[in-house]
Amino acid sequence: MNKEKRGIGGHSPGTEDLSARRARFAKFEHRTRWMGLILLVLSVALVGQLFYLQIEQFLHYRTLSDKNRITVRPVPAPRGLIYDRDGTLLVQNEPSFALELNPDRVEDQERLLDRLGEALPVAAARREAIEKRIRESPPYQPVTLLEALSSDQVAIIAARRHRFPAIRIQAQSRRHYRHGSTTAHILGYLGEPSLADFRRFDPDRYTSGARIGQIGLERQYEKALQGRPGHREVETDAFGRVVRTLDEQAPEPGMNLVLTVDLELQELVNRALSNYTEASAVVLNVRTGGVLAMASQPSFNPNRFIGGMTSRDWQELQDAPHEPLLNRAVQGKYPPASTIKPILALAGLGEGTVTPDSTLQCDGTFQVGKDDHTFHCWKERGHGELTLTQAVVQSCDVFFYRLGHQMGIQPIHQAYDQFGLGRQTGIDLPREAEGLNPGPDWKLRRNGESWYPGETVMTSIGQGYMQVTPLQLGMAAAAIANGGFRVTPHLVRAVEEPESDDLRYRQLEQDPLPLAQDGNLGLVQDAMRRVVSSIRGTAHRLAGGSIPFAGKTGTAQVVAIDREEEEELDPEEKERRIRDHSLFIAYAPVQDPRIAVAVVIEHGISGAKAAGTTARRIINGYFQRRGS
Fold this sequence. Notes:
Shape: elongated
Oligomer: single chain
Mean pLDDT: 87
Radius of gyration: 40 Å
Structural class: alpha+beta
Helix content: 40-55%
Number of strands: 23
């Protein structure tokens, strides 16, 4: 019985269980020691890493964290406003929205732009310009992708915000030209700055997406109009949304411009030129040189440039017929023709070559040079015997052929130079054309050839090599009207400090002309009065208005069209292109001159017909509106 209870081998069941338990415990204890050792090593490593990250690398990671959490955003400066002489606002800033990209958050730029193009077709159309803007922008600054967004475009991006974490909608202002094409050539427009622009202007004044003046006053007064940007330090969440503003520095707004331009007169001049394909006109204050109106036809709408243009749109504007971007008033160059005969008359009197009582004969032709080259008068049978006054009134070419031939080119060249013909006037507009007042020195430098007597004859009536701008003609007319002082044409009357409303006015610039100071100017003024009032005057058909004015007609011969260009023109355009240019200068009123006008109608046939009629309309409209 006892043997059966002990079991096989003589061991009791209790003894066997205890031994197994002890073995298992020992094995578990061994594993526990190893596990504890591993945990101890890991804990030491973790504590060491925490010490390294939180103590040793504290400043480094705090800086990285602040970069993610705190951003400094530039605040664009409001661009200066532009007013006409009476305080009418011409250019203003309107609220707008733009798309701004944070380059640091972009992982795949191509994919991002693909998605943006799918959401906004305008982004796809301007893809090339957007990529160029991203390339040329500093990597640490936000980049403006699109401007002048419509409300629908803003809504589309806002609804897809989760797809564009690197893009945000930014409120900003945009330029608006309230009178469109009417003032386009005066004011100009804004465009994207180039690298050359940043070399000329202070780049610290421009934020991402900033625009810079390209032509007109926007370009000329860029430094005054462009203020200094401020900045705002903000705290953002993981989605780039602003949580709070930590610091802010307000921008400095740009200066405001007060112009000499009379908006109502500007509109009148534009209407007067609207029937012509290519034309320009300038109206000056004869005492100050202030530009009351300046128009060039055709024109363009500067608001088209707001928000940027596609390359296709820009090319279309560049290729548009008759060069709408060209300001013909200051960049168009034309033979002055007979409009400068009053100046040659004054020079002849000053040189003593002719007197008020002396006469010269016009038989319709004049021969000069070794080969007896024949020059013709516009009146085929001639004018007969004429005094100097009669020659100006009837615009006799032969009289001035003879006078110029007797004087020689040097006194003629000097007289034209005194009145500012063939050189820049100094107007406050960029890219003003110089024109050409030719002479022997110029021809020798240009062609390596001597000056011929026949060239003096042609220069005497404003043809040949000579070229002037409509503005130069207007300035010369003002000098005759004001008693012999050359005034500097200008468009900006004053610059206004926007915060204090203080105005800094432009100083008057007047240069007395020696030719006009010896008592002979009265004869020339009387002759220009008779050009309009006399039955024999070339502009007598313009007489009879409520405001008596003095003037001088000009009909400039057009250079022949080259064969290749001729083949590309349709018959009607070809017929128009071979017509003479029509020119007219005037000042009014006769007794107390206040304004001078110069009008050039390209291919307008005769001075009195097109340009003269336009000038009379401008003069009458100005004084009727002013009530005097």
